[in-house]
TrEMBL record:
Protein name listed in UniProt: Glycine dehydrogenase (decarboxylating)
Gene that this sequence comes from: gcvP
Annotated source species: Candidatus Nanopelagicus hibericus
GO CC terms of this entry: cytosol; glycine cleavage complex
Protein family per UniProt: Belongs to the GcvP family.
A GO term, aspect molecular function: glycine binding
Length: 948
């Protein structure tokens, strides 16, 4: 095969010559000897995954192979509903957002000045959700409907002032998977869950909250005023699980006086995709915003007084509050929320109402016809779903399947049929034929619950209805952002590597994205094969025995893994073990997940080299010997080094009766060179959106498989709707869908298939090499904080700015913002150590790009030197004024101590002048504190705009 067709050489940025150059710089002849000096030899493996993973094939061949797999899924018409509905992704949004690297390769907007486009889109999502639910504040997305409901439960519990015994009431008629996730999440927190149908509103005993389905799983939309009054009379919070499309027609949770609304935004343009990814939503009334889980986009101002967007309040929530965090959510569903926002703008209020009315019309016509032909159907108000009680349920279900229609078999004597945006007149008449009935047009009766309030009146929802207008709006927003399609994003711990186009292509194939998660198993044979292959490969790569792909972010994998430990210990009668040891350097999600799994967090100190302090570890093991449940460590550590003592650490924990959780977010430094499942760990989560090329989407989606050794396998997640999704002995589901965000698994499958074992190993080796090359070169400018054996780092490098900050006042933020003037995205700031930056180049960046970054850092260092030498004060330096916007640069009253040229082109004329292109942030430095004090999280109503 010719060299040029080899995907490995496309994925790995540096070519052979550049690899040699970097090796030479570090004093090595070849990659082998280099890796041997970096990776501790007691964990180093060589040539193992090459045997287990099939050899690489070309992009063309891999696409052909996955298309054969895709064909094994059969595309049927879905009327199953249950939270997953047919929708039409407007083509202009499909191509220019979902299929556009400008959107899908962006990172979470922690650097808001280079993320105004996606922040504005999420702000629109939040506005749409608040308008539709009638509540005051909505967050930037939840992982799905089911977890959003569980998060609402824990939110309510946090603000509850009464007794610990108070129970959580759930509506029997919530969708089954939503109830199941609530049960999984309630159990480790010892929250008592009571299921009732609300036919009576007398609650015995204390309750802290109740969740009501509106519409519910039987299709009923009912007046919930009495239930709400009764719940609130007990000082408990009311959570309404609702449907955004239905809320264009029905009275909103806000108008009823509900406290919280949750649900899924899937049917706003995001394909069902065998269960995900989709954006869940969570909205609250004023007063609860500071307890809101997940991310929240807020408005603030920049240094020039212009409005600007940024993440508000809990920006790095888990890192700050750790075990007190409001949730463990880090990666959420940004790209899907962005799609839902554009879908809302595209249709506007009238368009959405028209879609909703059409759907409702189908449902009423269908029900009327069935009633006329003698079927037992209810008389209550409905939106899109018709419940049919019939002895012949199974028979009709089978007949429908044979005609290419999936309907829902609710029980042996009931069926339901849900209509959606994709439903047609033809579908309706065919369905009626299946039921032996025929059309008999029925009116939608007048409703007392009809929505009378305006919604989506803001111009953003009433402007972009032509394709030209929408195309330009999407383009305008994406031009404001820096994503991987313009520059390297050297964010430590985030692994911003190539998301290859061939990896992305299959995800929009209908064979993958139109499969319903609760459809018959034989229609998803392609998914079953893909999931099996990918699972086996991940097991081979990590050395573990069993995996669940269900968790839809790393944080959810952490929870699932710790829950497996919890249940394993319980099964051995060791329920008293509830201590989770976590090093001080850990990612914030770790502590938050431990709390969700019902454990208590004890922090372990790190030594001066950044390693887990063996001394402190020994001390804590002795102190908590009888109650030790687990140690949670990241490997290689979040300090970016391979700790040689890892095997010894695992032994110490096991010897004390505890389990070892290795946070696998840094697997990009391990694939092919070490296996956590073999060096002593019991369970890990992986981040397919880091190591295995799923793009970050501006802050999600993700997939966070939980992967474990044999003894924990019986305790991995399962799912009530699909027995093949996990062991019968499992704790229940951690995500709404049996296989979580299944429709993006083809990305990781393609990556592994096109790299093969040898390519994967080489990717790891080059990632480590590039990081060490950066470390070596940057050390002349900034001290490198931690190193491992032989003075090498793993796949990321922490530079220490604290001394410079002390001497000059130049902060990590100044450097991060000045990098924007160079057209770069900053490295990770102040994690895991405050006042430092963590650089992870990944294997995908070639040496030319690494050198370009180094040159920017050198120029910044020179500017710092001028402050050091007192040639300019920090306040007057370009560092503090960064980033420079066009408005700033063309001001008439330019009075800075440096030229406009230096402001715009800090590296002189050679970079970015003329034809080279220049990225210009659209806002200056944003005032975070102002934004938190004056919290604005959705577009101001039009009346207020007018009066301003
Ligand atoms: C990214 C990361 C996580 C969290 O993963 P999400 O997918 O964002 O939930 C946990 N631990 C470490 C070390 C990470 O880098």
């Amino acid at each position: 095969m010719s060299h040029r067709s080899d995907f490995t050489d496309r994925h790995i940025g540096p070519n052979q010559y550049q690899i040699q150059t970097m090796l030479l710089e570090l004093g090595f002849k070849d990659l082998d000897s280099f890796i041997k000096s970096v990776v501790p030899n007691n964990i180093h493996i060589k040539g193992e995954i090459e045997k287990a993973i099939p050899s690489a094939i070309s992009e063309t061949a891999a696409l052909a192979e996955i298309s054969e797999i895709a064909k094994k899924n059969s595309i049927k018409k879905n009327f199953i509903g249950s939270g997953y509905y047919g929708t039409i992704t407007p083509a202009v949004i499909l191509r220019n957002v979902l299929e556009n690297p400008g959107w899908y390769t962006a990172y979470t907007p922690y650097q808001p000045e280079i993320a105004q486009g996606r922040l504005e889109a999420i702000f629109a999502f939040q506005t749409a959700v608040t308008d539709l639910t009638g509540l005051d504040i909505a967050n930037a997305s939840m992982l799905d409907e089911a977890t959003a409901t569980a998060e609402a439960m824990t939110l309510a519990r946090r603000v509850w002032q009464g007794s610990d015994e108070a129970a959580f009431v759930i509506d029997t008629n919530l969708h089954p998977h939503v109830k199941a996730v609530v049960h999984t999440r309630a159990k480790p927190l010892k929250i008592k869950v009571i299921e009732i149908d609300f036919s009576s509103t007398d609650f015995a005993g204390d309750i802290f909250a109740a969740v009501i389905a509106y519409p519910n799983s039987t299709g009923e939309v009912k007046d919930i005023s009495k239930i709400i009054a009764s719940v609130q009379s007990k000082s408990a919070l009311v959570i309404v699980n609702c449907d955004l499309l239905a809320l264009t027609l029905f009275k909103t949770p806000g108008e009823y006086g509900a406290d919280i609304a949750v649900g899924s935004a899937q049917r706003f343009g995001v394909p069902v995709g065998y269960g995900g990814p989709h954006a869940g939503f969570l909205a609250v009334r004023t007063g609860l915003e500071r307890s809101l889980p997940g991310r929240l986009v807020g408005q603030s101002v920049d240094t020039h007084g212009n409005l600007a967007f940024r993440l508000a309040l809990q920006t790095r929530e888990q890192h700050i509050r750790r075990d007190k965090a409001t949730s463990n959510i880090c990666t959420a569903q940004v790209l899907l929320a962005v799609i839902a926002a554009f879908y809302t703008m595209w249709h506007g209020p009238q368009g959405l109402k028209a879609i909703a009315s059409r759907v409702q019309g189908f449902a009423y016509n269908f029900r009327g016809a069935l009633r006329s032909s003698g079927f037992d159907v209810a008389n209550y108000e409905i939106f899109d779903t018709v419940l049919i009680n019939t002895e012949k349920a199974r028979q009709i279900f089978d007949k429908a399947a044979q005609s290419g229609f999936n309907i829902r078999l609710v029980s042996n004597n009931s069926l339901s049929v849900s209509f959606d945006e994709q439903s047609t007149e033809n579908d309706l008449s065919q369905l009626l034929t299946i039921f032996g009935s025929k059309l008999d047009s029925s009116e939608i009766p007048a409703s007392n619950l009809a929505r009378k309030t305006d919604f989506l009146s803001h111009p953003i929802f009433n402007t972009y209805h032509s394709e030209t207008a929408m195309l330009r709006h999407i383009r305008t927003l994406s031009d404001r952002d820096l994503a991987l399609d313009r520059t390297m994003i050297p964010l430590g711990s985030c692994t911003m590597k190539l998301n290859a186009t061939s990896e992305m292509i299959p995800i929009t194939w209908p064979e993958f994205n139109s499969i319903h998660p609760f459809g018959p198993a034989d229609q998803a044979a392609g998914y079953t094969q893909l999931i099996k292959l990918l699972s086996d490969w991940l097991i081979s790569i990590t050395g573990y025995d069993a995996v669940s792909l269900q968790p839809n972010a790393g944080s959810q994998g952490e929870f699932a893994g710790l829950l497996a430990i919890r249940n394993y210990l319980d099964s051995k009668g060791e329920s008293a073990r509830d201590i989770c040891l976590i090093p001080s350097s850990a990612h914030g999600t770790n502590a938050a997940s431990a709390v969700m799994a019902g454990m208590k967090v004890i922090v372990i100190a790190c030594d001066e080299n950044g390693n887990v302090s063996l001394e402190d570890l020994k001390l804590k093991i002795t102190q908590y010997r009888s109650t030790l449940a687990a140690l949670m460590v990241t490997y290689p550590s979040t300090h970016g080094v391979f700790e040689s003592a890892i095997s010894q650490i695992c032994e110490m924990i096991h010897e004390a009766g505890g389990q070892v959780y290795v946070d696998g977010a840094n697997l990009n430094a391990l694939v092919g060179v070490a296996k956590p499942g073999k060096f002593g760990a019991d369970v890990s989560h992986l981040n397919l959106h880091k190591t295995f090329c799923i793009p970050h989407g501006g802050g999600g989606p993700g997939v966070g498989p939980v992967i474990a050794r044999k003894h924990l396998a019986p305790f991995l997640p399962n799912h009530p709707a699909n027995s093949s999704a996990g062991p019968t002995t499992g704790p229940g589901p951690v995500s709404g869908a049996p296989f979580g965000s299944a429709s993006i698994l083809p990305i990781s499958w393609m990556y592994i298939r096109m790299m093969g074992g040898a390519g994967l190993t080489k990717a790891t080796e080059v990632a480590i090499l590039s990081a060490n090359y950066i470390a070596k070169k940057i050390e002349r400018l900034f001290p490198v904080l931690y190193k491992g054996q032989n003075g090498f780092i793993a796949h990321e490098c922490i530079i220490d700015i604290r001394e410079l900050t002390k001497n000059t006042g130049v902060t990590v933020d100044d450097i991060a913002k000045r990098l924007m003037d160079h057209g770069f995205h900053s490295p990770t700031v102040s994690f895991p150590v405050a006042g430092t930056m963590m650089i992870e180049p990944t294997e995908s960046e070639d040496v030319r790009e690494l050198d370009r970054f180094l040159s920017a850092m050198e120029s910044i260092r020179a500017e710092i030197a001028e402050v050091e030498a007192k040639q300019v004060s920090i306040e007057d330096s370009p560092l503090r004024h960064a980033p420079h916007t066009i408005g700033d640069l063309v001001r008439n009253d330019w009075d800075r101590k440096y030229s406009r040229l230096i402001g715009a082109f800090p590296n002189g004329e050679s970079f970015g002048m003329g034809r080279g292109g220049k990225y210009l942030p659209t806002v200056g430095r944003i005032d975070g504190v102002y934004g938190d004090r004056n919290l604005v999280c959705s577009c101001l109503p039009i009346e207020e705009l007018a009066s301003n």
